Amino acid sequence: MISSSEYKERMAKLKSNVYQGGNLVDRFDPSITGGIDVIAATYDFASDPEFAGVGVATSHLTGEKINRFCHIHQNMADLLAKQKMTRLYCQEIGGCIQRCMGTDALNALSIASFEADAQHGTSYYKHFTEFMKKVQKEDLALVCAQTDVKGNRAWRPAKQKDPDLYLRVVEKRPDGIIVNGAKAHNSCSAYADEIVVLPTRNMAADETDWAVAFSVPADTEGVYLINGAFNPPKHPRLSSPYCRQGESHSLTVFDHVFVPWERVFLCGEAEQAGKAALLFALYHRHSYTGCKAAVSEIFTGATALAAEYNGIANAQHVRHKLADMIQVVDLIYASGIAAAMHSVQAASGTCIPDSNYCNAGRMLAGEAIYGEYEALAAIAGGLAATLPHEEDFFNEKTRPYLEKYIMRVPEIPAENQHRAFRLFQDMMSSAWGGHKLIDALHGGGSPVIEKVAIYRDHNIEHSKNIAKRLAGIKIEDSTKGIFREKRSWY
Ligand SMILES: Cc1cc2nc3c(=O)[nH]c(=O)nc-3n(C[C@H](O)[C@H](O)[C@H](O)COP(=O)(O)OP(=O)(O)OC[C@H]3O[C@@H](n4cnc5c(N)ncnc54)[C@H](O)[C@@H]3O)c2cc1C
Q1: How far does residue 72's CA lie from ligand 1's centre (Å)?
Q2: Which of 122, 196, 328, 407 could bridge across to 215 with cysteines, CB 3.0–4.6 Å?
Q3: Residue 487: what pLDDT?
Q4: Which residue minimizes the CA distance to atom 42 of ligand 1?
Q5: Which atom of ligand 1 is nearest to the CA of 145?
Q6: pLDDT tens-digit profile of 377-403?
Q7: What is the pTM of this model?
Q8: What letter would DSSP give residue 154?
Q9: Counting beta carbons within 10 angstroms of the beta carbon of residue 207, is it exposed (0 to 12), middle (13 to 18) or buried (19 or more)?
């Protein structure tokens, strides 16, 4: 395992390929460092005694202690520890911990590459295992580029007018492949060691060119990161832990990029490409049951704080709102625990969480976020939007007025009132707050996609049979089991 400063030293050595605001920018551009600091924290947390037992795992490949973000889940306990780690770290940071995409991609690939070899006699899993040893030894920070730009949403990859709208293999050589295309919304690519590329969807038999998975260093020749950086507002006088985070997402262009065979984990195996896509989504939704539980808890805590500072903590409507919010936190987290408890082991040995529970939790999280913004805005009142500028609280002339008129509960000092409402403003009434709202809805897959998965994986005939039996209608099957014993796509 490495330290946060070793991670930063490695980032500083990457070749420039980050484009932002019309310029080729340094990875340590001030707009990007907030995100770098979040990933850096994952290195420090691993050795923090307060997080003992969650951030470190034992490699099934070498027996060495490794950062859990570099681990392939071997059992239910690993899934539970990953979920708990994600929640704790996100709570500490104040939002997304940003390193889970790589972990989720690796776990998906450990299964898909193994199964491709079993079916096609290829050697992807051997290559993948060697790659994993490097990831674990060097404690690499990986991101996942799955989402294709997709062109016309109604058309499949092979039917697009421009075939590059889904990333594809354009040439196979004895030493590797050439890929061309672009991936959208690629979080943290500007400060990652490696970009893991996965297919975005199921592939048909005539779509083998698009059935490709691999990993490349983030500064590989031909990779261009057209980046957008997002940060909470900076407060020079009243800096807070919440404002130190930041994140980036890029349109990642692969312009005829060469990938050596040792780094190719699928190439033309349509069935396993689809599986890799679905498995990544599944692992990522399991991670969401940790991070979104943290985000929902932050909103719950902020709403309770707003109520306390406004002197309305005991009002019945406040308690009802808080109870609704707590219920969401608990249900999101519970769905991840249930998914781990109902996990199954793939042939590769990797542990797979239950699909229905993961999707139910992620869908609830994606849809609940608008209610969480509404609750905090309702209880905090208009000041969360109209709070005067920070500098006016420090201006000799205006300070006494602002300190006098911000007061609510007299025992709470003016600075704490100011700090609390500044946090609410940053969370909701800022460019960052708007960005995080869409992030919470679509990141990990839009709720509509979870609906598709939930319906796909639930044995609706079984549910209907229960109703039929209770109505006295004759049925063939027994209704004495639960549906999960009957349905699985992996
Ligand atoms: C902040 C953020 C970070 C992200 N980070 C990553 C990342 O690191 N890596 C990564 O791979 N992805 C990432 N994503 C991508 C995320 O998974 C996608 O946004 C999500 O899957 C939706 O895809 P899309 O944005 O292309 O939306 P679209 O596919 O354009 O979907 C928009 C809507 O169109 C409709 N639609 C789409 N296709 C069809 C169809 N065929 N038929 C009918 N209706 C359809 C759906 O209703 C959908 O809700 C991130 C997204 C966000 C917002």
Answers
A1: 26
A2: 196
A3: 56
A4: 154
A5: 11
A6: 999 999 999 999 999 999 999 999 999
A7: 0.96
A8: T
A9: buried
Between residues 2 and 477, which one has the greater pLDDT? 2
Mean pLDDT value across residues 65-76: 98
In the chain, domain spans:
4-269, 279-455, 458-485
Q: Which atom of ligand 1 is nearest to the CA of 188?
A: 8
At which residue do the structure tokens 């509404």 appear?
Answer: 374
CA atoms of 405 and 399, how far apart (whole Å)? 10
Q: Which fold has domain 279-455?
A: Butyryl-CoA Dehydrogenase, subunit A; domain 3 (1.20.140)
Report which protein residue has its CA nearest ligand 1's atom 36.
Answer: 153
Cα–Cα distance measured from residue 178 to residue 200, given in angstroms and rounded to the nearest whole number: 18
226 Cβ contact list (under 8 Å, min separation 6): 19, 20, 250, 251, 252, 253
Two tokens, residue 460 = 């609706």
Q: Which of 148, 185, 200, 436 to mutate to test the pocket of ligand 1 (most atoms within 8 A of CB)?
A: 185
Q: Which tokens is 299 given?
A: 């909103």
For 9, 190, 389, 475, the CA distances from 251, given in Å and listed in that order, are 25, 11, 34, 53
Domain at 4-269: CATH code: 2.40.110.10
Dump pLDDT digits (tens) for 339-368: 999 999 999 999 999 999 999 999 999 999
Partners of 194 in the β-ladder: 142, 217
Grade residue 459 by pLDDT with cuts at 50, 70 and 90. Answer: confident
Q: Which of 202, 145, 155, 284 is nearest to 456 (CA)?
A: 202
Same fold, 4-269 and 279-455: no
- Ligand 1: atom nearest CA of 200 is 11
3-state secondary structure (DSSP) of residue 107: helix
Of the candidate ranges 376-380, 432-436, 445-449, the one whose mean pLDDT is the lowest: 445-449
**Spatial distance between the Cα atoms of 355 and 341, rounded to a whole number of angstroms:** 12
**CB neighbour list of residue 285: distance below 8 Å, 6 or more residues apart:** 358, 359, 361, 362, 444, 445, 450
Ligand 1 site residues, Cβ closer than 6 angstroms: 101, 143-147, 150, 153-154, 184-187, 249, 438-439, 442-443, 445-446, 448
